[in-house]
Automatic annotation (TrEMBL):
One of its GO terms (molecular function) is transmembrane transporter activity. Belongs to the ABC-4 integral membrane protein family. This is ABC transporter efflux protein. It is a multi-pass membrane protein. The chain crosses the membrane at residues 21-42, 289-314, 334-360, 372-396.
Length: 413
């Protein structure tokens, strides 16, 4: 018989025992759904994070407190957290760092603030960030309209604000970016004049740049100073090839700023944006291996269940097998028939599982602000695993069916 005929016979066998076949393929489907769903959500989150870090460019690096970076807790170990970076230390570094690069000072004021305009207000998830004149360029943000904060305005602490795209859309109905400029919004009942609107940037799983407002650094110190834990320093060199000497220079300057003695370990860290991307990829690779292992365990249980169903099917169809053999069917024909039936059940279950896995994985991704992903690699993996499971589960029952004695099989009641 041809492969097409075997597949047709397999579908007939499935229809004749529909409930049992459906329950069996659902076991396969849930295993594949768990596998593809987890891997899809990991991929989507990884893409979201890497795109956000990549937007900063490969020519930027950050000076941060020791033990607070993404690499601070690798392999279950976290370094002791260093002293916070004070405003004076950050300002001193910016003044003393003479390497040809742009240095940005910034600080987080709050991640749970409400911005208002008249009776219209945002949800209480607006992020208030204090920034200097270099922050937009170093962080990879672009203005859709308006202008940046100047160095004088940053030092003077004036009440002006640059708002994200989502804030503009929420507070100004039927707006154009130019009509927003010069308007006033309030944050914690403090009036701020809008001087710029940022282009839509999108969100990662932990941060949404479109729901952020930027105010001058001194203004942040005046109104949100008590909530500022530590100041951030970011450096952008003109050429990515110069980033290593720039980092070496930055480490020496900041050691002098922190008054770190010779021989003592630095209580701060320098992180490159491409280094963060590599770290994300490494960590997600570990998660992917763990997800595949969990999925394989689930599929092992499904394989055992399918093998049991196929053995029951062989027993129920013993007389049918005897008739086929008496009409000239060879052992190979019977073996292939039952093996194809097991593979068909697995592939149908795999198809259902892949569809639901993609939906489940992207559902998680949507909740954390990521983009929709079609995981072609994991789809191929799912189908491949289903094929392997079908062969493993169906091989023994198929061999058993092919070895039945036709005379004894015809006598079977």
């Amino acid at each position: 018989m041809t492969v097409t005929e075997n597949i047709s016979i397999a579908f007939n066998a499935i229809r004749s025992n529909l409930l049992r076949a459906v329950l069996t393929l659902l076991i396969i489907a849930f295993g594949i759904m768990a596998l593809v769903g987890i891997l899809t959500s990991i991929d989507a989150m990884k893409n979201s994070l890497t795109s956000n870090f990549a937007s900063m460019g490969t020519n930027t690096f950050n000076v941060i407190r020791k033990g607070t970076g993404l690499g601070g807790g690798r392999r279950g170990r976290r370094s002791n957290v260093g002293e916070k970076i004070t405003y004076k230390q950050a300002l001193s570094f910016k003044e003393k760092y003479q390497y040809p690069a742009a240095v940005s000072m910034s600080a987080l004021g709050s991640m749970s603030t409400v911005a208002k305009r008249g009776s219209v207000e945002t949800d209480p998830n607006t992020t208030v960030y204090g920034a200097d004149e270099n922050y937009l360029d170093v962080a990879g943000y672009k203005l859709a309209a308006g202008r940046n904060i100047t160095a004088l305005e940053s030092e003077a602490g004036r009440n002006m604000v640059i708002i994200g795209a989502a804030i503009a859309e929420k507070l100004f109905e039927n707006y154009t970016n130019l009509t927003i400029l010069g308007k006033t919004i309030s944050i914690r009942n403090i009036q701020f004049t809008v001087i710029g609107v940022m282009e839509e940037k999108g969100s990662s799983m932990t941060f949404n740049g479109d729901k952020m407002v930027l105010i001058p650094l001194q203004t942040l110190r005046k109104y949100f100073g008590s909530q500022t834990d530590s100041y951030n320093l970011s450096v952008m060199v003109t050429d990515a090839l110069n980033i290593d000497p720039a980092m070496a220079e930055a480490e020496g300057v900041f050691r002098r700023v922190r008054k770190t003695k010779i021989g003592e370990d630095s209580d701060f860290e320098l992180e490159k944006s491409d280094g963060l991307i590599s770290l994300i990829v490494d960590n997600t690779a570990t998660l992917q291996v763990a997800a595949i292992f969990i999925g394989l365990i689930t599929l092992l249980g499904a394989a055992i269940g399918l093998m049991n169903i196929m053995l029951v099917s062989v027993t129920e169809r013993t007389r049918e097998i005897g008739i086929c053999k008496s009409l000239g069917a060879t052992r190979r024909t019977i073996l292939v028939q039952f093996l194809v039936e097991a593979i068909v059940i697995c592939q149908i279950g795999g198809l259902v599982g892949i569809v639901f896995g993609i939906l489940a994985g992207n559902g998680v991704t949507f909740m954390v602000g990521g983009a929709f992903v079609i995981p072609w690699a994991w789809i191929a993996l799912g189908f491949s695993l289903c094929f392997v499971v079908g062969i493993i589960s169906g091989l023994y029952p198929a061999v058993k069916a092919s070895r039945l004695d036709p005379i004894e099989a015809l006598r079977y009641e």
